[in-house]
Amino acid sequence: MPGQGGSSISNRAALVFQGGIGVIGLVAIWLLDIPVQWGGLSGIEVLLYGALGAAGTYVSLLLLTQIPSLFPDNLSRQMRGLYNFARSYTWPMLVVLSVLAGVGEELLFRGAAQGWLMQHTGPWTAVLASSVLFGLVHYVSFTYFLVATGLGLVLGSAYHLSGSMGLVMFWHALYDVLALYCLLRFPRWFGINPPDRP
Hints:
The chain has helices spanning 11-31, 43-65, 76-87, 91-118, 123-137, 142-162, 165-185.
């Protein structure tokens, strides 16, 4: 998601940014003739596994980030920036941005990057390399990079094993909605003292 600093960007700019990622992914897939796997799962399986995956991944990463000695820095500053970003948008807008992020980032990182790498390396090298790229693009601190890379590894593995782009798109979008909901609803979990409501 964009806007991990304290200031917000306009609705239009946020939509163009997130939608543009998907367009870049589609153009890369088309220009490089990268095969994208769609049919590995039924629609019900996509919804079920995507929901279980999003919830399981979020809870796992949340628990891991609570272990102080596991990461070299903490996420409180980044979480405060994301909290301020999310507070500046309505819930419908956050859901739309989450869907665009799920679709666009999966097309770019799993479809284009991982798909292209699979044509030139082994499948697990492709998963690892595209996950590190995913982490680098989301870099705001080393810990945030590790968390994003971990999420990329999970999504890349799910895409490779399931053969379903729809699964990872839904998983990613639902993960973002869940993460934003928990951040806004329970900010103290992340060391944030929310301002008093007027």
